[in-house]
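Hi X.,

You mentioned you wanted examples for the new student's onboarding notes, showing what a folding record looks like when two proteins sit in one file. Here is a clean example. The first protein comes first, with its sequence line followed by its structure tokens.
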Amino acid sequence: MTEQYKYEVIKKLVETNGNKDNAALKLSCTRRHINRLIKGYLNQGKTFFVHGNRGRKPSHTIESNIKENIIDLHRTKYFGTNFTHYCELLEEHENINVSVSTIYNILMSEGMLSPKARRLTKKKMRSKLKEQRKATKSKKEVAKLTENIVALEDAHPRRPRCAFFGEMIQMDASIHNWFGDKKTHLHIAVDDATGAIVGAYFDKQETLKGYYNVFHQILNDHGIPYMFYTDRRTVFEYKQKKSSSLEKDTFTQFGYACKQLGVEIRTTSNPQAKGRVERMFQTLQSRLPIELRLASATTIEQANIFLDSYIQKYNAKFALPINNIKSVFEKQPDIEKINLTLAVLVDRKIDNGHCIRLNKKYYKPIDSNGYPVYYHKGTQALVIKSFDEQLFTSIGEKVYSLDEIPEHEYTSRNFHFPKSTVKPRKRYIPPMSHPWKKSIFTKFVKKQKHYYEQSFDSAMHSQALTSIAR
């Protein structure tokens, strides 16, 4: 249109021998340039006003087959990825080096929105889709245009970071279709100062086992943090149940493990208070399922193995450099203490066969010399299942290992040749300074608010029954 306008002004100027100053004012140029345009018109006519690059492609133009490949890959292999992540995947796996803005322009022209699109972008796309719907009569085309709009997710507000690495560790779990058809829970721990993931673990539910595995990674890789900041799950803050079983009281067990290591626990019911971990789940839900799909991880075991390498890759890209921030992590405990501290506790009694029943199996206490120990029926025992799956029991002020009693003897006295008597091997028994002595743990349990309330309620209930009987 600009070229046509120039042509018409110069043509009229030549034919009518008009005012050159007036023509220069119309075209916003100098009188000298008007003379050039007149000379070009007289020599070449209308073709002089056609720009020399008309019909030529710029040198940086992306070829049409690459554009089609980008669109097809986003619809098939890398569906559900945001544009920034998609740009990284194309460079890593497909050897296609294009900018994020180029991908944005290509996909937006096809009506394909990013899962991270903002309200204003979606509003513009909706108005564009309405115009296209009016223009088309095909139902398939309308459905294809509509499916690209993704519901907006609420973002979480920012909060100031902590000053030191390890000062605050935010912990939470997210249920999502991370891999396969079944939903699983991803437990993660995020350092507030750096935004680095310091522990991650998949499990079927949000459980004490999941958080113990995350805690184990933190202790092995970094050390003892100053504080955990979590939501009010029963693992971190107790909600009274009908059953008073110690095995189900995960709060007391996790809380006691933190007490032994000197880690403070702070809880909140407001998700925005721990916005660092909540916002990270938004990023991981956009990126991690695609990465797991490309890695062909279909089970929890495979996904947990993949997490080890992925966390390093994620932290290298998104976390702040740890070297520039002072660490307040305390020195890592030894492996023995970690395994005994991150333990699951069960209250049991000695039966009339001098054994302990656990998970439909029977176990006998064994002392450090390898000989069985016998207690009277009804003796209270605390079964300790360490993080590395070893079983111990604390009875009174003594600790013993547990041996499973098989359903049938491995050898027969009547049909096997007798072997020379061998002394039982010595067993490793944790020293008396270990954190799970029954007396110390019982003292800690009685101080807990929910146990105090339960004992008070039961006392009031028995008192009421006694008054009714009278």
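Then the second protein repeats the pattern, sequence line and then tokens:
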Amino acid sequence: MSMFWTIWISVISLGTIIGCYFLLRWTLANKTGVKEGDEMGHEFDGIVELNNQVPRWWTILFWITMVWGFAYLLAYPGLGAYKGFLGWESSNQGILSLAESEEELRKDIEEGAWNEYALEVKLAEEKFDPIFEAYAKIPIEELAKDDEAVQVGKRLFLQNCAQCHGSDARGQRGGFPNLTDNDWLYGGTGEKIKETLINGRQGLMPGWLDSFGEQGISEVVAYALSLSGRDVDANLASAGKARFAACAACHGVDGKGNQALGAPNLTDNIWLYGGTERAVTETLNYGRNGVMPAFKDTLGEDKIHVVATYVYSLSN
């Protein structure tokens, strides 16, 4: 923090306490010329104003709050760049990367630094790590029968996965799969789901406009839509079937996809980027590049095991 902001914050913080001090001194001084307890000469509806001081307990509390405020500013960070003589921090400051943050966090935990975030992480690990370790020893398919474990996985899912897949896990158009329909690009077993969460996925669908041309794209689109029982132009679909040989390398001759490659099944009418003729044409023209981030470093394998359990339970 620059010296300007340090001075700015310090003046406002200390100025407020000093201002309260002088305000209290002024209100305690009797500048009315009337003795305490005597009438002030004001009367309204039979009520006479007396020259009374504020209650002593109120005054004492005011003194205490001012002393407490000043001591707090000295002990904790509150005056700009000044860190306080206790050395307390809410979290590591000036971190520029996730790796650096993790490194500093582990260092603070090992050294017992008075870092609020590090202390909370340490307490959480001591309390919850044994629970996750116990869950990790149980196969996902079996753990999915444990309602408590599933609810733990759900909370982790909402914190880390709902941004893309939605709070109901039904996904959204644009490359975020529905996790409740038992349609899986890379496989829906417990271990496959866990593998996806640990390592992430990157699916690449190349664009075919240069290879097929606009007419060829129209033909392949018609054939691809016909695989799921859609009404299409029969002539276009027939011509597209021959061109589909180039697509069969990933999607299979029958168009049912290949989970080893993450190539989707084109026969079930479930479309990751939309199943309209326009959306499928756009996919074939320009391709798609979907990325599922890896969560190994973010959650760790034990927590991922529980998240995978929740995801598995949604479609089973």
